[in-house]
Amino acid sequence: MKKSVSRRNVVFSLISFIGATGLIATGYSTWFFVDGSSAHVQQDVNIGKWIFNMGPGYYDDDFNEINIIANNYNQGKSKVEFAVSEDGILSKAYGDNIDFSKPLTDEKGNIINNFVFPSYYNYKDADGNLITVDVTTIGDGTGRLNWLGDSSFDEITIPDTVTTIADSAFNYNFPGKKINLGKNVKYIGVGSFAGLGNMETISLPEGLTTLSSLAFHGCSSLNHITIPKTVTTMGESIFQSCDSLTDLTFEPGLESIGKKSFFNVTNLESVVIPSSVKTIGNQAFGGCQKLNHIYLESLSIPEGFDKNWIDSYTLDNLQYVYCLSDKPLYDDNGVLLPNYWHYVDGIPTVWTE
């Protein structure tokens, strides 16, 4: 919610922040803006797990950005700090004098292995109106979250308030093994998670609609992924060079697979492509050297498949592109056609005599 304020000596009676962990903070604080004006909280309020501190963010006549220090993520006297815009975009996270290569701890000294991003903040304006702003977007730009690249976290958690992971939000900047996406993420931007070489696990939520190009390019430890039915179009090179990917599932609903989407996924051995898929781009499954079974839930290869949707490297090991049939099929001489399959107890099975 956009809230216009005057340029100087703006009074807010209460400002608070609630993170995904449910921790609440309020407190006395001052914001110094780029033009030297300031906004003051006039009273000390009970300081919980979070407090506010100085931060930039004054543009035109709008209260634009709050910097939040997270007291439960600390290292000595230094705290992790977030910058959140009035539109709910989390654009930065950093901390003065923090060595992110060393473990962060909570207030009891326990090492934090799962870094939980904040979910929303509340404040009351001078008229006493309570304004709540959800964190809906993890901001774009390589390096905005570059502190994660040096961190010791095993996993990170994106809260359910977030709907958008912007372009390049995490690329090459997280050394851990697991990312927990909130259930309401609908958009994953270009290169959002590219180059996360240690990441093994991420689940794409039902309701995701946009999976942009290069989103997981070079995630060489990712071993399984399910594309939910709400994704209808996959961009280019999304899972290119995901060397460890061996378990790939498409839910019915997907219509288009972009070029090089699974290029050089060298350990993938089989895949089922639903009948809803009408187009597959150039070399979408190129360089998949161990891919030996492609099961189409279509009765024939759709005309919209690029003539080079698989390449010579894939063809070297590929036995057949199998098409679905509810019964075995034979040629005019009564010889069983070898490239048809059906399900047996949910498992793709080639028809035999």
Q: Tell me the total number of β-strands.
A: 31
Rg for CA atoms: 25 Å
Report the portion of residues in β strands: 25-35%
User: Helicity, in percent?
Assistant: under 10%
Which segments are poorly predicted (pLDDT under 50) over 5 or more consecutive residues?
1-65, 67-71
Q: Helix tally? A: 1
The biggest sheet amounts to: 8 strands, mixed
Mass-distribution shape: elongated
What oligomeric arrangement do these chains adopt? single chain
Given helix and strand content, the structural type is mainly beta
Mean pLDDT: 76
Distance between the termini: 67 Å
Order of the strands making up the biggest sheet: 6-9-10-11-15-17-19-21
Q: What is the topology?
A:
Blueprint: E1 10-12, E2 14-18, E3 24-26, E4 30-32, E5 38-41, E6 50-52, E7 58-59, E8 62-63, E9 65-75, E10 78-85, E11 89-94, E12 114-116, E13 120-124, E14 130-134, E15 137-138, E16 155-157, E17 164-165, E18 178-180, E19 187-188, E20 201-202, E21 210-211, E22 224-227, E23 233-234, E24 247-250, E25 256-257, E26 270-273, E27 279-280, E28 293-296, H1 312-315, E29 320-324, E30 340-344, E31 347-350
